[in-house]
Amino acid sequence: MLLEIRNLHASVEGKPILKGLTLSVDAGEVHAIMGPNGSGKSTLANVLAGRDHYEVTEGEVLYRGRNLLGMSPEERAREGVFLAFQYPVEIPGVSNAYFLRTALNAVRKARGLEELDALDFLEFLRGKIELVEMDDSLLQRSVNEGFSGGEKKRNEILQMAVLEPTLAVLDETDSGLDIDALRVVAGGVNALRSAENAMLVVTHYQRLLNYIVPDRVHVLFDGRIIRSGDKTLAFRLEEEGYDWAKSPPETNRAVA
Amino acid sequence: MAPVTFEPVDAFTARHRDFTREVDGATHPVIQALRESAIARVSSIGFPTRKHEEWRTTDLTPVYATPFSPAIPDPGSAVEIPLPAKLFLEASSPLAVFVDGIFVTRLSRTPTDGHGVTVSALSRMLDESGDFRALLESYDESRADVFAELNSAFLVDGAAVQVEDGKGSDRPVVLLHLSTAAGGPRHVSPRTAVIAGRGSRLRLVEIHASLGDGRTFTNARTDISLHAESTMEYVRVLVENEGTIHIDRTSVLQETESTAATHSFVFGGGTVRHNLVHTLDGEGAEARLFGLVLADGRRRVDNVTRIEHARPSTRSFERYKGIVAGEARHSFTGRIVVRPDAAKTDARQTIANLLLGARASAEVKPQLEILSDDVRCTHGATVGRLDPDALFYLRSRGIDADEAQRILTRAFAVEMLDEIGEEWMRRSLDTLLQDRLRRIL
Ligand SMILES: Nc1ncnc2c1ncn2[C@@H]1O[C@H](COP(=O)(O)OP(=O)(O)O)[C@@H](O)[C@H]1O
Ligand SMILES: [Mg+2]
User: Fold this and answer.
1) Considering its fold, how many domains does chain B have in total?
2) Is any atom of ligand 1 closer than 6 Å to the C-beta of A42?
3) Are A41 and A18 in contact (CB under 8 A)?
4) Residue with the nearest Cα to atom 24 of ligand 1?
5) B51-67, pLDDT tens digit by residue?
6) What is the pTM of this model?
7) What are chain A's domains?
8) How far apart are CA B143 and CA B54, in angstroms?
9) Ligand 2 centre and the CA of A194: distance in Å?
10) Which residues of A touch B433 (CB under 8 A)?
11) Which of A168, A184, B51, B171 has minimal CB crowding within 10 Å?
12) Is A13 in the pocket of ligand 1 (CB under 6 A)?
């Protein structure tokens, strides 16, 4: 199993958010996590990435059989965990190209690969940029500074394409995107899909799942996964809403 | 503060007596005479303590309590240019190296390049131009500054830069001041005089560096006279050792329609006080003042600036930034004076400090003295810490915590580098900055 989350409890500022979340993801799989606002989707994503603002009070997370929660954020990234942020941070004064190269080299170094100089990196980057259909000028600008919503999300996918993670967590990368941008984001994700990698796609809308077809769909509600199923669960949710999902699954089993 | 247990005037006067006996034979008569009048002024002005409001932020105790003996310059001394200073030696730029205030021909390159720029020892220029003598001897009693006079009192020689009317070059002139900082606590008095003629252009870099680890009292002074319609970009870099107390004064006198940009980088020194004065003494003159401080450990850096709008339609723009780590402290005092007849003055001042340690501190004191109507004068100050969201963002991409801090700190500072027109200067300063950041973070 690539990722095993067992009975995970996490709080923010003393307030419990995740309340016993259990989830397993195997290599080669794409899992979608859906749930209403405030149900804990971003909390889960941030706990996996190692944000110290979130306190894990119970449970464990194994990544490739190792204790993920014991690793620093940078170690996790070097081990192949990637979070596409719901709200990417603007970093004035740091050029996007420099940021991408520094990150890539940090990860390559940890993986025993040679670091790339500025020229080799640009060469490497060219293909990735085409993949996300990003305007070249965004490379020389400060990280995310003054980027439109869509540009920020493309930039997240570009980072993912550059770092080639083993486990990618996408936190509402589709929110606020027009259909073009959605296609690009999905294209980036699908390009990374392989038998060795896995993805956790957090989304509000079934729409994205037309492009990124998930192996499993989970409904997160009040810090717990209350229902899991195949891709049809997403359609059902869209039609019936979360109240339906909250009702005891037994009564719905026939339709799920 | 502990009471000063001896009288600094007496100590400096006694050292002055011994010093002049030693160096008189080897100095230009104008400088010799200046030393005498200056020591008399030092006595009559007296030395400040922290009770003097203007000096409240600077701890002068080590200046008074350490037996700094004036360095006797040795023009034949074998020196090698220290590493941080080497960064600023671009092969094609004119370079003048001064060791303990004396011009060292062997280490310098001062071509006469047809651009009308002359770089030489001050003593040589005194024989060629009466203007330098006037600049050297100018004294404004209402602005008496004991350390500026102390510089004259212990002057042996210095640097002179002259640009002819309508001439000039974009290639920076580099003045490198080295203090030997060896053989006991040393007192050095680097001095620079600059005259830029009407409609001329000048790029000038002054670097202060130490040759050894010894304690030094660097009492530097630079006087710059910009004639009408001249343009100057001036970069000042302090990279002295931590045992250095650096007190200096840079005065820029600007005539009609002249424009000056001064960039002050304080990366070294234990205690630093940089006094910078721009006097906008001609209609339409413009001054841009930029400063970057990087202080860690227990270092103290004081930036004290004064911009005097003496004529109508003068403009000033001032931006200083401080990166303060450990238990270090950065104080900024920025006085802007708008004289009664300086209508249509436009003055802006913004100061930003970044604190990197729980015990680092910064203080900003704007002082606006506006004696005219119809002026526009704004100021603002911020103090902050590194953004935890940005730090996490970088770390989540595999960049370790220390490097993430360095990247964000450099990002805070980089704006001050971007203001510099000369590409290799920007690169050298960036290299130096990043090297220093690796030591701090
Ligand atoms: N940084 C934070 N500080 C305080 N409360 C937070 C923080 N982040 C999330 N929360 C709270 O945790 C709950 C779950 O939030 P979140 O994980 O962002 O939900 P989702 O991503 O599913 O919308 C919400 O009630 C939210 O208010
Ligand atoms: Mg969310």
Assistant:
1) 2
2) yes
3) no
4) A38
5) 899 999 999 999 999 99
6) 0.94
7) 3-246 (3.40.50.300)
8) 12
9) 26
10) none
11) B51
12) yes
